[in-house]
């Protein structure tokens, strides 16, 4: 069983977009996310994702974010970020903050590293 698909909107604007899958047997997901909010699908399925595209609605108009494109990934956490004024990008989130802090907590320096 795979985890649900999640899109994080880290911008100050409303976004909408589409998640495209590798096979015709999986129907695409369409999403709409308010500023600084998340969207989760109810079912992710096992189909590999080939593209996550987003359109950002700003006061200056609509801007297409640079899409995330893959030959087929099973990752299910993506984020839309603003690179600079009116330039946006869809990124795959590799690690969550919780995972990073857990790794730091496990680290136990050896005697020589304490010197």
Structure, described:
With 115 residues, this protein is mainly beta. The protein has one domain: Immunoglobulin-like, CATH 2.60.40. It has 2 helices and 9 strands. It has helices at residues 97-106, 111-114; strands spanning 6-9, 14-21, 29-33, 38-40, 49-58, 61-64, 68-73, 77-84, 87-92. Strands 2, 3, 5, 6 and 7 form a 5-stranded antiparallel sheet that branches. A 4-stranded mixed sheet has the order 4-1-8-9, with no helix packed on it. Strand 5 (49-58) and strand 6 (61-64) form a beta hairpin. It is globular and about 40 Å long. The protein starts with 5 loop residues before the first strand and ends with a helix.
Number of helices: 2
**CA-CA gap between termini:** 47 Å
Number of domains: 1
Shape: globular
CATH class: Mainly Beta
H/E series:
EEEEEEEEEHH
Structural classification? mainly beta
Low-confidence stretches: 97-115
User: Biggest sheet: strands, sense, closure?
Assistant: 5 strands, antiparallel
Into which percent range does the helicity of residues fall? 10-25%
| pLDDT averaged over residues | 83
Cα-atom radius of gyration: 17 Å
């Amino acid at each position: 069983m795979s985890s649900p698909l999640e899109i994080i909107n880290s911008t100050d604007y409303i976004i909408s977009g589409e998640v495209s899958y590798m096979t015709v047997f999986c129907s695409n997901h369409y999403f709409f996310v308010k500023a600084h909010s998340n969207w989760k699908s109810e079912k992710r399925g096992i189909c590999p994702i080939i593209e996550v595209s987003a359109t950002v609605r700003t006061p200056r108009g609509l801007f297409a974010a640079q899409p995330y494109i893959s030959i087929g990934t099973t990752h299910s956490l993506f984020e839309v970020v603003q690179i600079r004024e009116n330039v946006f990008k869809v990124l795959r989130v590799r690690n969550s903050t919780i995972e990073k802090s857990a790794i730091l907590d496990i680290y136990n320096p050896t005697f020589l590293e304490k010197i």
